[in-house]
């Protein structure tokens, strides 16, 4: 088995979730395992698709198939299925800025409103960046992602990150301290374990023992950034980058 490839146990977990099986309607996929291993090679190495080793087949064919699966939401569905066994007692929120390589902002539609909508890239202190918003379960495993331009505020992503979840508490840092968010958490019956900002006239208490667990979401981001296609955004389309995010997160669930 090559360095970046799935072992037999990992493959057995995701194989039934992928399209192109003999039991599926339509055309049967050509060696799904070889194709997924090729995608993992690109994800982990951060290399160009053109540099895909020959053992994985033609790079254009692999890239086209990856794009079709990304557009169809296949990678997100695989991640969602693996993340079904989550612990929702506490949910932890955080975000990270990912530097966008200049090739992520070039090509058709770049600079236009249409281009901005399909490429959530913005300007922040780090230059051209994409912000990855993440919710983790009690054990620090990723359960949901959103991507947005780098300058967007963290609080804007919270309603979508928490949709359909009913945690006992939500843990987040001071960047999430806002009356509107606290009111939203109260409506869904979740305790806000969020430190108050220094600008508040009266500090709002939080449970310091539960808050100590929040480092798990930061550690999760550190693990995800071992995948180079996660740590730097090279993809022009947001759907392609988000697909790599979901694949990296799926690998954490299969460890």
Question: Concise description?
Answer:
This protein is α/β, with parallel strands linked by helices and 255 residues long. Helix content is 38%, strand content 16%.
Outline the structure in words.
The chain is α/β, with parallel strands linked by helices and 255 residues long. It is 38% helix and 16% strand. The chain has helices at residues 8-14, 32-45, 59-71, 74-82, 113-118, 158-162, 179-187, 208-211, 215-224, 228-231, 238-253, and strands at 90-100, 122-124, 127-136, 142-149, 169-171, 191-193, 232-233. Strands 1, 2, 3, 4, 5, 6 and 7 form a 7-stranded mixed beta sheet that branches. A hairpin with a 2-residue loop joins strand 2 (122-124) and strand 3. Helix 3 packs across helix 11 (238-253) and helix 4 runs parallel beside helix 11 (238-253). The longest helix is centred in the last third of the chain and has 16 residues, at 238-253. The protein is globular and about 60 Å long. Mean pLDDT is 90; it is low at 109-117.
Quickly list its features.
alpha/beta; 7-stranded mixed sheet
Distance separating the two termini: 16 Å
**Rg:** 19 Å
Helix content: 25-40%
Shape: globular
Helix tally equals 11
Class of secondary structure makeup: alpha/beta
Low-confidence stretches: 109-117
What is the mean pLDDT? 90
Query: How many DSSP E strands?
Result: 7
Strand content: 15-25%
- SSE order in H/E notation? HHHHEHEEEHEHEHHHEH
Biggest sheet record: 7 strands, mixed
């Amino acid at each position: 088995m090559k360095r970046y490839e799935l072992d037999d146990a990992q493959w057995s977990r995701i194989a039934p979730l992928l399209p192109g099986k003999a039991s599926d309607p339509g055309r049967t996929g050509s060696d799904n395992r070889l194709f997924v291993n090729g995608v993992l090679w690109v994800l982990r190495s951060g290399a160009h698709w053109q540099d895909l080793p020959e053992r994985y087949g033609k790079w254009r064919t692999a890239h086209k198939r990856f794009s079709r699966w990304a557009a169809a939401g296949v990678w997100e569905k695989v991640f969602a299925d693996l993340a079904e066994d989550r612990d929702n007692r506490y949910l932890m929120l955080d975000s990270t800025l990912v530097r966008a390589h200049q090739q992520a902002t070039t090509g058709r539609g770049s600079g236009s409103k249409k281009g901005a909508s399909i490429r959530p890239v913005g300007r922040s202190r780090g230059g051209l960046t994409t912000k990855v918003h993440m919710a983790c379960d009690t054990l620090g495993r990723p359960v949901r992602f959103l991507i947005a331009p780098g300058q967007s505020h963290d609080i804007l992503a919270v309603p979508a990150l928490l949709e359909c979840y009913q945690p006992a508490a939500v843990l987040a840092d001071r960047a999430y301290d806002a009356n509107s968010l606290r009111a939203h958490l109260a409506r869904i019956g979740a305790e806000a374990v969020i430190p108050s900002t220094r600008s508040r006239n009266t500090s709002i208490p939080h449970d310091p023992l539960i808050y100590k667990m929040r480092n798990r979401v930061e550690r999760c981001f550190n693990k995800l950034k071992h995948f180079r296609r996660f740590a730097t955004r090279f993809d022009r389309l947001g759907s392609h980058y988000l697909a790599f995010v979901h694949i990296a997160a799926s690998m954490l669930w299969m460890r």
